[in-house]
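Re: the 571-residue chain
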Amino acid sequence: MMLRPARGAGRRATDLLARASTCFESLPVRARSFLQRRLLAPLHGSPLYRWWLGRNGSDKEPGALAVAIMPGDERIGRQIASLLFERDGERIDKPAPLADPPGASEGWRIWLDGFGWLADLAELGPAARQPARQLVDRWIAENPLSSGLAWRPDIAGRRLAHWIQWQGIFLAPVPADFRARYLRSVHLHKNHLAATIASAPAGSGTIAALKGLLFCALALDDEGLRIRTTRRLDSALAQQLLPDGMHIERSPALQLAVLRDLAEIASAHAMAGRKVPPALSAAVQAMIPALMMFRHGDGGLALFNDSTETGTGTVERVLSAIGGGRTALDQAPSGGFQRLARGSLVAILDAGRPAPPDFDAHAHAGTLALEVSSGRERLIVNCGAHPFHPDWRQAQRYSAAHSTLVIDDTSSSQIRANGSFGRRPMHVVCRREELDGQIWIDASHDGYLPKLGVTHRRRLYLTPDGEDLRGEDIVEGHGGANFALRFHLHPDVDASLAQSGTAALLRLPSGQGWRLRIGGGALSIEESAYLGKRGQVQRTMQVVASGPLEGDETILRWALMREDTKKRQKR
């Protein structure tokens, strides 16, 4: 006869695992990753582990916390109800098995496993109840607790938060057998997250995992779990939020994603009748100006570090849910970005070190890259990111996919096969001055120094009317053979060479014209690719000034001037 633990043994085992997880969390990120991969992952797939975690409190139903900031899309909801799942151009009809059909990319699987698409189903109203219930039930049946991708803490955390947010559409009225399976799975998720939270991916992934655990603690009125998880969240925010309010991963897209997660966590506290933790409120308010710093004139985000445009509606809904001011930072000394805004022109410069080790999974080799917009039209861009396609995603991380200077076709940071950075700029210096509406920026980095023996310096000047942006790109040192100064253009921009091939005329859809004049290199207009719209690859152009490095210092001077300004100056 098999001996069964005494009543409460399941809870004691879970608490023991949670304490072990706290000790595990104190280890360096790389040590945690190694131990997770070699020792803990096999344990999480074992029947014994599932049995112990599944014993604790499986009969208590969580209350719904309908605090989602973003509405769904009814069109997408109708597709999902008919079992057509499409994400960023990847389209799978009637996937089987549901979360891991043959040919599905890892990104598509992460999206499906996260269940954020329940918001789209919810737009169907009562018609969403049956397909939502069937899909949740099918996922539970096909995905027992394991060490696989679906149960990675950040993905499991998102799934749990979305289930609790949207359970009102599939949980009542509901057959008793489904309710029992759902409640068992909710408690299994909770106990698994409590035991494995320390092994969540560093950065925004940890926030996602903690969000799911906090939602569950609030929905189940589990005061002990809420207190423990709040302490973990406070610790994560202290580590990840820089003094200027920028998230440590230095990504506009992740700045928005983390801010949205924190805003929904705060709303969940209020809905559950709990006081919002002070550190959480402070973090939300600190992150707003840094997010505003990344916005172009069209309201969307700049394309640094795995980011796409993100429509203005998404940003506005997050900001509206939070409340507070809308003032953008001019500079983020800790995060390493500069914003130059005068008249209708906005220029955003990456003038900081890449995200530190363990937080660099989304980092691009875009040091000193520049983006420029005029009014609601984007002019000079970086090439963006592809969230699912691994080859495109890798290519977009290279320096050549950014509007910056590249030496010998080499990226300023080395991107390893596992996605982390090897060689990287260690000294990135930036100085800003303003006088009578004029802005000067002087920045440099040493990313090329170890391999090529040179440094890159970029100086910018913007006039008070925002119609004349001047720049100098300087290569200093002995080493390297050739340079390529790249200005990638938005697909809506039409470009042609002018002034006997020493300038490029840039025409925007509104008819507004800009002239980009470059001295010190041979000018050409070449093909490029734009992945600024999520999941799309668009053909575009880039203006390139190239040539050999000569002596100890090579200087390229350039000017971006509004075309009608040039005409006025000639009169």
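Residues 176-196 form the longest helix (21 residues).
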